[in-house]
């Protein structure tokens, strides 16, 4: 069985992430979306909310037959071993992403020689898109419908409404 892992913060999941998920899921028997619980990274959405968002999107796009969602913390290579994954999926938006991602891929391979990294170049229409861009737009009440899957638009707005009311 060929298992791949697509790790990330997904704070929140974007259409760019979804595009990578859809393309990568065609290459594997199982794709595990690893939602990172990173204590050193400040996220707007809790890990539970982020897992729920990804699960909603997977269901909405009928990908649940071979795409699973799991939260994890610690080293990605340990998570890869736990999932019996043979490779890590990463998306590249620009040359600047490549430098960083290449370093990570080489480090992961050094830590666990049975793991490789497969890079997907982002489609042109998503090359500018990031979760941080979505968060900034949403925080000011801007229109995020063209950046995130429809099924999470309202929950993202609801979160920012709750944050503003505190």
Automatic annotation (TrEMBL):
GO terms for molecular function: ATP binding; pantetheine-phosphate adenylyltransferase activity. Keywords: ATP-binding, Coenzyme A biosynthesis, Cytoplasm, Magnesium, Nucleotide-binding, Nucleotidyltransferase, Transferase. GO terms for cellular component: cytoplasm. It catalyses: (R)-4'-phosphopantetheine + ATP + H(+) = 3'-dephospho-CoA + diphosphate. One of its GO terms (biological process) is coenzyme A biosynthetic process. It is an enzyme of class 2 (transferase). It comes from the Bacteria. CDD domains: PPAT. Substrate binds at residues 9, 41, 76, 90. The record marks 17 as: Transition state stabilizer. Transmembrane segments: none annotated. The keyword Nucleotide-binding applies. Residues 5-136 form the Cytidyltransferase-like domain. Pathway: Cofactor biosynthesis; coenzyme A biosynthesis; CoA from (R)-pantothenate: step 4/5. Its EC number is 2.7.7.3. ATP binds at residues 9-10, 17, 91-93, 101, 126-132. Its cofactor is Mg(2+). It is found in: Cytoplasm. Its main location: cytoplasm. Belongs to the bacterial CoaD family. PANTHER family: PHOSPHOPANTETHEINE ADENYLYLTRANSFERASE (PTHR21342). Reversibly transfers an adenylyl group from ATP to 4'-phosphopantetheine, yielding dephospho-CoA (dPCoA) and pyrophosphate. Homohexamer. This is Phosphopantetheine adenylyltransferase. It comes from Herbinix hemicellulosilytica. The gene is coaD.
């Amino acid at each position: 069985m060929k298992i791949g892992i697509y790790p990330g913060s997904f704070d929140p999941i974007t259409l760019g992430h979804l595009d990578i998920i859809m393309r990568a899921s065609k290459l594997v028997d199982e794709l595990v979306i690893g939602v990172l619980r990173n204590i050193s990274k400040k996220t707007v959405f809790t890990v539970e909310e982020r897992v729920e968002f990804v699960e909603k999107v997977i269901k909405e796009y009928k990908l649940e037959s071979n795409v699973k969602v799991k939260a994890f913390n610690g080293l990605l290579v340990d998570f890869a071993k736990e999932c019996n994954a043979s490779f890590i999926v990463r998306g590249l938006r620009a040359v600047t992403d490549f430098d960083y991602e290449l370093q990570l891929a080489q480090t992961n391979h050094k830590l666990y020689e049975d793991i490789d990294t497969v890079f997907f170049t982002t489609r042109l229409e998503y090359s500018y898109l990031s979760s941080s861009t979505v968060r900034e737009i949403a925080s000011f009440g801007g229109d995020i419908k063209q950046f995130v899957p429809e099924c999470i638009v309202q929950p993202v707005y609801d979160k920012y409404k709750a944050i503003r009311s505190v």
